[in-house]
């Protein structure tokens, strides 16, 4: 397995490993309210497809930009692009509670809180990777 901090062309690094699980979690967010709940249509849309689409779109756009820019070390453009996806994940985790969608505890866990926390965790890990600085920036000059 390649080192996750690799900056060599053709070598996979952490965002390449994180983007597929983010996509799976975002797709689950989008469809889960329709599979496991009987909430009203508007509430389903607000806790499912809308935040799922936002998370997926911004995560994929982020990954594409990161790749196009040559997988840079500290790139605030790439970092900022993930913030709406993180906000969508937070909304998923608390949205059903805020809306009082009438879901059972199991439905909340399976359709909202669990996938929302998963998205936030995966996306914040990607942000921390994008925000890292090159090790050469911290080397002290020779004495």
What can you see in these coordinates?
The protein has about 140 residues and is mostly helical. It has one domain (about 15-135). The protein has 5 helices and no strands.
Q: Tell me the count of domains.
A: 1
Structural class: mainly alpha
Helix percentage: 55-70%
What value does the average pLDDT take? 86
β-strand amount? under 5%
Biggest sheet layout: none
Poorly predicted runs? 1-6
The number of helical runs is 5
Topology as H/E string?
A: HHHHH
Radius of gyration based on Cα positions? 18 Å
End-to-end Cα distance, whole Å, is: 37 Å
- E-strand count: 0
Global outline:
elongated
Write the layout of secondary structure elements.
Blueprint (H helix, E strand, L loop, with lengths): L13 H23 L4 H7 L1 H20 L7 H24 L5 H26 L13
Helix pairs in contact: 1-3, 1-5, 2-3, 3-4, 4-5
């Amino acid at each position: 397995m390649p080192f996750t901090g690799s900056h060599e062309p053709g070598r996979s690094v952490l965002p390449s490993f994180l983007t597929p699980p983010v996509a799976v979690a975002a797709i689950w967010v989008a469809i889960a309210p329709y599979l496991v709940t009987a909430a009203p249509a508007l509430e389903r849309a607000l806790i499912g497809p809308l935040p799922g689409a936002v998370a997926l779109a911004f995560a994929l756009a982020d990954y594409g930009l990161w790749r196009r820019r040559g997988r840079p070390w500290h790139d605030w453009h790439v970092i900022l692009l993930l913030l709406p996806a993180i906000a969508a994940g937070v909304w998923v985790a608390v949205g059903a509670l805020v809306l009082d969608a009438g879901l059972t505890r199991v439905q909340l866990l399976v359709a909202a809180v669990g996938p929302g926390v998963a998205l936030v965790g995966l996306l914040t890990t990607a942000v921390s990777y994008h925000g890292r600085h090159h090790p050469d920036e911290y080397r002290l000059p020779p004495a």
